[in-house]
Write the structure tokens for this entry.
Amino acid sequence: MVFKCQEDSFLKEFTSTVVKCEETKEPVVEYGKTSQFEGYQVVLDNTILFPAGGGQPHDIGWLNDVEVVQVLRKGEEALHFTKQPLEVGAEVKQRVDWSRRFDHMQQHSGQHLLSAILENEHNLRTTSWWLGADESYVELESTSVSEDAVRRAEARCNELIQAATPVTVKFYQANDPDLEEAHTRGLPKDCMDTIRMICIENVDKNMCCGTHVSNLSQLQVIKLLGTEPGKKGKTNLKFLVGNRVTNTMQRMLDREKALTALLKNEPNKHEELVQKLQKNLKVTNKNLQNVLSELAQFEIDRIKSEKPKFVFMFKKEATPEFNRAVSKGLENEGLFLFLASEEPDKPKEGQIMIQGPEEHCNALGQQITELLKGKGAFKNGKFQGKAGDLGGINKCRKLIEDYFKNL
Ligand SMILES: [Zn+2]
């Protein structure tokens, strides 16, 4: 069956009759993400809501005021998924979510154009494609695609868009000899009962069940985003068409504006400035390491000369290297040592280290780890692990002080 949306892809409203309404628990799939659903599957005498097929996602819309969350094709029928039931025989007004549908039309017709140019002019065959929530891609039968081919294909597609090349839909009988020059490019044959051909004038003829623009100028522009390795022997070429290009451009501009404010300089200086910052950070970190390792030695010498009963050291900025150096430097002194530091990006969390005579570790270890929500274990007389919450650090100091006062 050819649905109304395939006859006229620009119809936004349509009146139809409810033919069937059955309960369902079939899941809803949204751009590849599956979610549970409980509701109804409604069949109408005809529909302007496109059921998913040919790589194009389903439409969403309304039947009167009842929301349609998914449309699937099962044989000759289009199943409309709704939360509320509709009475069989009732007349309903269909409305399609046009911004979503037109976006799908732009991406889908854009894919036909791109695939045709890549095949005709670069000998790169499309084996499948994906229309995603943000980006789409064509899967090409090649292990690599040159940057030059990508650049030239993009320019050629935009040339045909600027020329307002017409796009028409033609219907054929299965034995029509004209069919031989068309192809499906290995795309799913899920809607091949009526042979429907999408023709881009002088460029492409392709069997397809999707909804398409009537003129390439409606695509506005196509932008190729580059390639990624695909399945074995394949390369995915990512693309955006029409409104997605302007929306993406806006997001990029917003990010650039934020960076300009942070870096206090123009966009053409951003790269240079970030490189400079990274270099400075590297030098600063190296200097910090040197200072901390000198400080560790200084602390070790001080503690050795003072000979305290215990050491409690909480240095927020201490690195794991600093803590390890102090612990190693004091491991033969026979004193109880507690070290703590903050995680640089999560100040509530931190690293802790406990070492010393077994009797003290046994007496204090468990209470300390409980106070600091510590995760880890004693190994060879040392505890090294994470503190889930440094909020208890003062209680921890008090605990250790009291313990040694009462010894
Ligand atoms: Zn198609």
Observations:
- The first helix runs from residue 4 to 7.
- The chain has eight helices and 20 strands.
